[in-house]
Amino acid sequence: MTAHPIRCPRCDAQSVADERIVEHDCGHVAPIDAFGDGCEKCRRQADSETLTDLQTVERCLECGHRSPLVPEEGTNGPLPAVSFPTLPTPEQNLSWVPARFVPESRFRRGVLSTALVAMVLLAGIAGAVSVTPMLETGPTDEASVDTDWEEYDSLVIFRNDDIQPWYNQEEMRAVDEVFIERDVPVTLGIIPDTNGSAALTEDPEFCEYLQSLETDHPGQFEMAIHGTTHEPVTDFYGASEFGGLPEAEQRERLAEGEALLADCVASPSSTFIPPMNTYDTTTVEVLAESNYTAVSGGQWFTDEYYDTDNETYFRAGGLTHVPETQAFENWSAYEEAGEDDDGDVPFHDLETLTDSFDASHDENGVHVVMLHYQYFTTDDRLEKLESLIEHMQSEDDVGFLTVEQFAEGLEDGSVEETDDGWRVLEPISAVSR
Amino acid sequence: MSVERSFGNALRFGRTMGRGLRAVKWRSVALFLSALVPFGLLINVMSAGTLYAIALLGGLFVSYLLWSYYVVERNPRYESLFGIRALAVGGVGYLATIVWLGWLTPSPIAIVHLGAVVLIFVYYWFIAFIAFFHDQIGRSKYVPRPPYPNVTVLIPAYNEEGYVGRTIQALLDADYPAERLEIVAVDDGSTDGTLAEASAFAATSDRVSVVSKANGGKYSALNYGLLFADGDVIVTVDADSIVDRDALKRIVAPFEANSRIGAVASNVTIWNRDSLITRCQQLEYTIGVNIYRRALDYFGIVMVVPGCLGAYRREVLEEVFAYDPDTLTEDFDLTMKVLRAGHRVSVSDARVYTEAPATWRDLYRQRLRWYRGNYMTVLKHWPVVTDSSYGYLSRIALPFRLVEMFFLPLASFVILAYIAWLVLTGYVMTVLAVFVFFTSIVFLIAALGIQIEGEDWRLLVYAPLLVVGYKQFHDALNIRCLLDVLIDRDLAWTRANRIEQDSSEERESAPSAD
């Protein structure tokens, strides 16, 4: 340490000396004297290899004040002109609003700010609310399920028609229970306003029941619209609610039914089941406009109207047509002899039903069974349904789907016809809606 | 008489209530509570299993927080129990449980999806709530009052010509007793006119002194400058920053209020908001940095005292031997050292204005240094993660930081891949719906941040970019930096160009002191 004749700028003592400042490898910066016993920070040794000279400064031995060495000539120039940029301040929050719109009084400015906050708040909430229905039908949860391709020899679709409030509710629940117990999916054909006098929404208990099916058995019960009033409005192919009506009237009828169904169930499907199994090309146009993907009438009708030959499914007018191929009820017998001994529409015998399925199975076909819940009034009748399902399930490699799962699956590739049957991306309920 | 007394009491009570209600910041309350709507909707569309899984994790998380509070504040004897390691084990057990119960189908997407939803809940209802609460009741707890301590402001400067003078002038203009303020500019071997510019101020003001040394990096400049500091409180200011007029008074106030506080952070504000990229950064600062910092302040564990304006008790700096050379983010590293030494680190309302990178390239260079430095610092202080004796630091601050640094960037790309798959398989509308939904939540969080920070409402326009675009840029950079640090690539200082300075290869290649 070299003593200087100058005085300390702080205490005026004439005991200023040079001091060598060094930096150790560990980053510790101190006078060289402080490293006499090694580095106090890292406890490692300090020598010429680990120490780097930083600067030599002047230090007052009396008060300890350090001063840098006098800067070299030329470093003390004139004070530079300093300009500051425009800095944002909280008080300038409304500076971007044109001046003529900013009130002068503080209170009114506060009101304006509050109005802006309210707008932001409403915009945020409106954004979230507006897209929530789309999230509900989104694949976010379902897509997280592991899926796998399953090979089937044939496919079976059950279609339970005429679902309506008040009427034979016990029978309706009993039939649903059969499908639940057997874990078989089913398309429910729901009449939104039977005969124009039994709107779904007037029976909240009924709607709650349907919603409970959707919630408790996701993907198992398809909520399809079955006309609007189910009345035979025209004599199109014998009788029809839609076929033969002008386009505008069909559109209006459909919209009425859709509104009622949407208020009753959580997820109305994209399948249309025409009452009396009949519809025309206008019906299909109206349905395609309304984003339906499938229409399920009767095969006897589609063979004639679309000139097909026992086709179990086909594309026409932008929709997939999946007609019923086997009725549970024996309508021919009913037309000839009327009701059976129990006073109900007669059913086919079990053998007829199983033979029909077996034929479809052998041909790797799609077997669409139509039934009407209201006729399942006795245990024997329910057992017949159970027996049929049992028979189907006893065969290996039979896939069960709803109409919508089948139609949408064909569209999005999760259902494919193969050389020897079908392959389905299972669980299909997780893949489709 | 008693009727009159009762009436008087009722009147006083009414007045007190009236004052209380007037003190409530109702706009913040409205914005905070408005998020109930999207969260309610989110809960509504969730499957029962997901909801139970979130509730169970929420229970685990709340139990952990309550236990942490108990052992840190009341009974340190049990501090080794149910710490971060036990929480990690609990997390694995939790995953096994929800898979076993059928609430979660085990797949990377499902786990990331659940993690993302949980983080949104936690971020909003824990971080944002504490920040909101802090704003409602806590801001006035550090009111600047005389006597003010002796302060030394250190300004490390490397090639800051055109900037350092402005920084010094702003400090000289600051509202702080002149006899208690000392400004030390440390020239770190600049090759431009930085030394001359700073020396000109030293020649005209006895409050300013300039010291110079060979170029060695910011840590070295600060350690060197510290030898010339006489103040009881050491304030560090970057040579390109502009302190607000009352910033010095505000940043020293917490030291007077609480002797356990060892360091104080500031509120960083970007002044060059003339481009999309700088506005995005301001929004990021508002909701990602300042809100987060405010929440951690509640526990005294603010994790970064920013280099552009921060304050330390002198004895605390000396106790931890100031700055180390072994990370690229010396401010984060020093704050960790202060916290590890058992001191509280708090945040103040001292505002500092800084210039943000104005191009993607410059932002990339700046964040390359920050993120590499963050990973280096976390790895350097890794023992804290598993040592429960560090209280809230190891129990709350670091776990959040680890999730933010290690899980979120990776999760972000898993989700992005999932979204791409959804788009390719035809779920475009669903993807749009998810985007709008999460943007609305970010929008409300941003609005709350803007309201609390008194920021510019126009920044809300950029909220969607914090969901898609800007966010993925940072996530990708984080992953790159993590890999860089793990494979120990040569990690040199990278420095963004300034809009008011010309770039030079020489400047970029030397270790910087800003």
From TrEMBL, chain A:
InterPro entries: DUF2334, Glyco_hydro/deAcase_b/a-brl. The chain crosses the membrane at residues 110-131. Keywords: Membrane, Transmembrane, Transmembrane helix. One of its GO terms (biological process) is carbohydrate metabolic process. This is Polysaccharide deacetylase. The lineage of its organism: Archaea, Methanobacteriati, Methanobacteriota, Stenosarchaea group, Halobacteria.
TrEMBL record, chain B:
The keyword Disulfide bond does not apply. This is Family 2 glycosyl transferase. GO terms for molecular function: glycosyltransferase activity. Keywords: Glycosyltransferase, Membrane, Transferase, Transmembrane, Transmembrane helix. The chain crosses the membrane at residues 24-45, 51-72, 84-103, 109-133, 402-421, 427-450. Pfam families: Glycos_transf_2. The keyword Lipid metabolism does not apply. InterPro entries: Glyco_trans_2-like (IPR001173), Nucleotide-diphossugar_trans (IPR029044). Residues 152-321 form the Glycosyltransferase 2-like domain.
